[in-house]
Amino acid sequence: MTRLVAAELLKLRTTRTFWALAGSAAAIVLLIVVLSLIIDDALDDHDEVESLLSTGGIGGLLTLVLGVVAAAGEYRHGTIASTLLVTPNRLRAVSAAIVACLLGGLAIGLIISGVIAAIAIPWLSAKDADLLPLGETLDLFLGATMFAALGGALGASLGALIRNQVAAVVGVLVLIFVVDPILVALVDTVAPYTLSGLTSSMTGGDDGSIDTLPRGIAALVWAGYTAVLGVAAAVLTSRRDI
Prior knowledge:
Layout (H helix, E strand, L loop, with lengths): L1 H12 L2 H24 L6 H8 L3 H21 L1 H8 L3 H37 L7 H29 L2 H22 L8 H9 L11 H25 L3
Helix pairs in contact: 1-6, 2-4, 2-6, 4-6, 4-7, 4-8, 6-7, 6-10, 7-8, 7-9, 7-10, 9-10
């Protein structure tokens, strides 16, 4: 299994898509953080500082797309055939892709958290802002990094299941921006378990409008969704012609 994951990581890091999305995620977060620090001279409120430091959650949304593109791209470019010739066990093949995207997302999450820490904290300190306690700050960065990793894994599961890159990306957007709000409107108690609710739980970027789960529980629920989609992708892949 280790060799399979290593092979998937090699494919991931030798494609321009990975580096483009990683660079885009870091650039977007950097732009938001710098503009927020320039525009808001005060930033002396605890919630404002927390919201700024939780900006890294944006990276998780991009790693979600990265996972979709990486897994579905195997079918678009036809490389899935050679992958399955080497690894006929579909569950192992899908699992390796998911783990690789999880590790890729983890790397992106660490980079983004590092960018925020290197720029925002010294800047806020120089402005005598109300900095968060060290433990709370590390918890926010840990949550954002964890979300980036799990986002890549879920995206890979969904991409392997749907196989079409465009349809899978659109599916992710529909889930987050259409299905989630409809579910919350129909059943209020389901809000913490939607993708949006779990995102808020892990990144700390909630506005208090919904109840959120503890960060660890939210990560486990997200991982459960990933496992279900991954198994479904492996089962369907075994029944499809490649």
